[in-house]
Queue: 3 jobs
Job 1
Amino acid sequence: MQDMNIGLWDFALRLYKAPDVADACLALQEKSGVDVPVLLFAAWLKQGSIALSPAKTVQIIGLVDEWRDEVVAPLRAIRQRMKTGPKPGPDKHTEALRDAVKAAELSAERIELMELETAGLALATISDDSNRSAGENLTLVVRYYHGSTLDAGARRAIATIERALIGL
């Protein structure tokens, strides 16, 4: 295990702000349905040299699926819808509400990251598959959402995030 001293929230903020990472994460979210907090979690584990197995990937994602589906995703949908309407928006009056929804969405993602961090710290103390490489973590997560064959766009997005990890 290399460095799990930085918490997942702080790590996620740093990685997400790295050049091109936000665009890569959002592309994976929009085109493959990837849950960005889970993707950032997989990168955090990779930085700590903790490998995910396919079974652990499914288990970890299962810990936060309901939260994402019932809290995070609806907040995101409302925020995105408010970019173009419904009437009376979008205008300066509805923008304040949209900002509040965006803040609630971010808070919900932070709660999801806290749950993932707890699970990740437990993974750091045990290993169910010592032959796996942590280098596969991002690919495992994207494949879970996208399917077994990754298209060129998904591979490019993963490569962008992995390059950013080197600079952290």
Job 2
Amino acid sequence: MNTEFRVEPAKLTDLDQLVTLERATFNYSCISRRSFRQVIQSDHNYCWVARSENQLAGYAIAFIRRNSKVWRLYSIAVSLNFRGFGVGNLLINHVLDTAKRQGAEAMSLEVKSDNKTAIHWYQNCGFETIDILPNYYDDGSDGFKMRFTFYPESL
């Protein structure tokens, strides 16, 4: 397996693979094909994909509210076949670098409170838990709101 990856904006031709990866990764609150299409076509939100040759290895979606300096990492997923190769780190670093270059002061995200693996990974990436979100997910489970601050000394 080729373990060289590139990150690039998602295209409409990626829709089938994105939906397949979404369904294979999450069993709750899945992003629909229509929603992926809207994000790909948006002029103020982002969907990036990581590829190894022509295979989709993962994706990341970031939302930006107009007039806000806080971006939101809406979703990130890595294909089971590509886990352990640094794809998640490549994607999150790309998102954070892009946000910082474009003037963001912070990146926020929500994660299920029982997803210990993801929480630990986000903490290793520099995110901190800033709030508890009771009954946040469709299945009634709680969430954590986490934040990465680019310039913590300015707060």
Job 3
Amino acid sequence: MAAATFFTFMYLVVIAWTYVAVMMAVAEATSTQGSVLGGMVTFVLYGVVPMTLVVYLMRTPARRKAMRAREAAERAAHQATLAQGSGAAPDAGSHAAADAVAPMRKEP
């Protein structure tokens, strides 16, 4: 529940900052000394770029947690498949496989 509240708050901040950036861009575009291009640059540099960076950095722990959960599920599925098989994993020992190809060597 706390994570949902955190992300809700984070997106609320993103929406508020986007509103501020839009208002800055509109002020730049409608100014007597400004231009529409200046307004677009203002919106991108003050709005899009910082908020993209903030959202990416704030979502990093959630991405890591999801990645670890996915890896744990894959490991569990792999272990389950090995347990259902013959009981021993192929080449589970520390020895090389019997049908391995010998490495190429230079001739003396």
